[in-house]
Amino acid sequence: MATTTLTEENFASTINDNDIVLVDFWATWCGPCRQFGPVFEAASAQHSDIVFGKVDTDAQQNLAGALNISSIPTVMAFREGVLVYADAGALPQRALADVIEQVRNLPMEKIHAEIAEQQAAQQNESDSPEA
């Protein structure tokens, strides 16, 4: 599968409508981004069940800013709509393969339960009257 260009308009729906999404934040002037691009493209060809998205940080400055991208390339992995990995730097092929394997093997039922507990605790804190 080829990579998909992600923009402000399709980012959220892509993350929410797919099981696993890997996102490469890059720019044309970035040397490490140009080195990592073929690695990311090759992985997209090997894993047709995963969406591989690319965000051009120059063209999508608001999106990059909203996601606190401060260094490129940055790779993010989302599973079932949850950000489960984010790291800056060009990954070698083997390291990207390891990230993909780890994302596939995450216990998502447990992760969703933990998120629900955290949200409930935050809601309880905001509902509590201050002493």
Automatic annotation (TrEMBL):
Which superkingdom? Bacteria
A Pfam family reported for this protein in Swiss-Prot or TrEMBL: Thioredoxin
Q: Which CDD domains match?
A: TRX_family
Keyword Flavoprotein recorded: no
Q: Does the keyword Transmembrane helix apply?
A: no
Residue stretches spanning the membrane: none
Q: Which NCBIfam families does this UniProt record tie to the protein?
A: thioredoxin
Protein family membership = Belongs to the thioredoxin family.
Q: What is this protein called?
A: Thioredoxin
- Organism of origin is Branchiibius cervicis
Recall the taxonomic lineage recorded for the source organism: Bacteria, Bacillati, Actinomycetota, Actinomycetes, Micrococcales
